[in-house]
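ok here's the first one, seq then struct tokens
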Amino acid sequence: MKILIVDDDGLIVDLLQQYLKKNNYDIDTAFDGKHGLELLKERSYDIVFLDQEMPELTGLEIIEHVKQNNIKVKTVILSGYEEINEKFCKAVGADAYLRKPVELEEIGKVINKLQGST
């Protein structure tokens, strides 16, 4: 499984990357929305983890691009905002969300849920 992590918080990227690599996932990373979108255009991913607020492009703008261009990838919003919940994610077209600070067991749960919905 190929996963892209797009977040401007290096600690979050490191945490996700270490957990996912330990579980044998193939990982790419980007530290801003513009670079993340470039990677999505160049490569094929199964899942993309997106910070909601980033320089250049937000996670929501990337999700909008994914939907408009029919890119086949599952999207997961990463956010510390209380307003971000399942209802919000469905409204913006995201497949799932994780609340920051991210708990490792939640990463696996979200991936399993998304794998089951393909």
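and now the second one, same deal
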Amino acid sequence: MLDPSSSNTDLPAIPGKRYFTIGEVSDLCQVKPHVLRYWEQEFPQLKPVKRRGNRRYYQRHDVLMIRQIRSLLYEQGFTIGGARQQLSGDTAKEDLQQSQQIIKQLRGELEEVLQILKR
């Protein structure tokens, strides 16, 4: 499940849901649940909604943030502290990267729909 050599382009598309459980996010980001809980302590930007029984519910922006953290740590070789500094440093750059990820995902989904329609 945890393969640092796989890039964010290899990750599955994010479904159009409002909330995701920790298990779903784990599958979507290819990161184990205990790592996600640890990252919540280390990255102040990562704040899932907690409901009854302290269950975590992540939103789309949380999933994108986790993918960005994953990329910084596993693909770009940052330490936890370096990744934290990178994320807190330039929010405009962060927003641009998130927008680019969303556009890439939408393009992929639209290409899949086009292939289905061509059949």
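notes on #2: The longest helix spans residues 91-118. The mean pLDDT is 85.
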